[in-house]
Here is the input.
Amino acid sequence: MIKTEQFVMAYKVEQDRLRAMMPEGFESLRPVLRINAEICGGRIYLEFNTPVAAYGKSGWLNIDNWSSSETEISYIRDGSNVRFDTLFIEITFTGIGIEGGCPAEKDNCGCWFMKDGVYELVHPEKIDARKEFCDCSFQWKFQEGDAHGVSIGGKTLPAATTGPSRTYDKIPLTAETAAHIKCEQMLGQYKVIF
Here is the structure.
């Protein structure tokens, strides 16, 4: 059986900016962007998501995803550090030796992925393994001024929905547009092997 090593981090952004990017039928649930990085059988996979409600369900909306079979992605291990590098993001996870769970998984019906011009809901994998909290730093590199952040001592912080306060012009939800939204605060980071 091939093991998967998954690294997950989330950060807080301005929710009104996310609202302006939501596709028809989707509602932004929280001011959060999330990056998943997986190593499995020599392949590296990155995924960029945001929490949404759609069609009577709550889950994640996939903004984009990349696989090392199609995109140049590398990772380097240095002790408890694992750094992922591509042309468009650099992200480092450092295990801190404390285990726990992830509250964001409690209202997760799955993740909507675009396929042939239509969003399809993919149900989540059941992962029973314990998660190890991490410190994390990241830098999007699509364009100058993209989001970046550094966690504070592996802490997990809540991100409640915020009411509308600003209106932005509607723009498409792409990795490039979402990565340009400023990181206000790192929310939580962990790694898990299953």
Remarks:
- The first strand starts at residue 4 and ends at 12.
- The chain has one domain: 4-193.
- Residues 4-193 form a domain with the Acetoacetate decarboxylase-like fold (CATH 2.40.400).
